Amino acid sequence: MAARKSKGFDLEGSLSHMLRRTQQFAYDQFTQNLSSASLTPRQFIVLVAVNDAEGLSQTDLVNRTGIDRSTLADMVARMIENGLLARKRTKEDARANSVRLTAVGRRALKATEPGAEEAEATLLALIPKTVQRELKRNLALLSNAVLEAKENAVPVPKKGIHRKPAAKRPAAKKKAPARKKTARR
């Protein structure tokens, strides 16, 4: 059976669809290369970000990794339980936490990096070397534009959350009860 093409949305030409498919392949490569490691791709990214800038607050970590705040908070809590990270209150803001790698986290990162690099190389090997640098440059440009848009965005209320109250209608007059029909004799 031949595939039907949508008259409107071009799925095959959709940037978001292409990025999602590419990301899924990259994720699969990462998990295949690190099947013996206990880290997920997101945990690896958190360890890399913390290693690059020890003492980041969790808010800074959200900004560096692109992982949403609530997911990151849960991840950090689990990574602390697993001994990969340590957390303490910052001196500048007693409400904020900074995170750092533990010795266990440093070893896990070091053991995972070769597999992650191999997954990256596998992904890039799918396209000619002549376009790899340009692709990475353009994706960085898009990624930075997305970050800037997020920083400058005004939250848009979700549809249906802030409805105007319905205008009050006058009470409907009650109808007289219907009479029972009786058979005539």
What does this structure look like?
It is extended and about 90 Å long. It has six helices and three strands. Helix 1 (15-33) packs across helix 5 (103-124) and helix 3 packs across helix 4 (69-81). The protein has a domain at 34-152: Winged helix-like DNA-binding domain superfamily/Winged helix DNA-binding domain (Arc Repressor Mutant, subunit A), CATH 1.10.10. It is 53% helix and 6% strand. With 185 residues, the chain is mainly alpha-helical. A three-stranded antiparallel β-sheet has the order 1-3-2. Strand 2 and strand 3 (97-101) form a beta hairpin.
Question: Nutshell version of this structure?
Answer:
The protein is mainly alpha-helical.
Strand order of the largest sheet: 1-3-2
Taking the alpha carbons of the first and last residues, their distance comes to 70 Å
Average pLDDT works out at 83
**Strand elements, count:** 3
CATH architecture type of the domain at 34-152: Orthogonal Bundle
Radius of gyration: 27 Å
CATH topology of the domain at 34-152: Arc Repressor Mutant, subunit A
Number of separate helices: 6
Q: What order do the helices and strands follow? A: HHEHHEEHH
Sheet with the most strands, sense and barrel status: 3 strands, antiparallel
* SS content category: mainly alpha
Strand content bin: 5-15%
CATH superfamily of the domain at 34-152: Winged helix-like DNA-binding domain superfamily/Winged helix DNA-binding domain
**Percent in helix:** 40-55%
CATH class division of the domain at 34-152: Mainly Alpha
Low-confidence stretches: none
Given the C-alpha coordinates, what overall shape results? extended
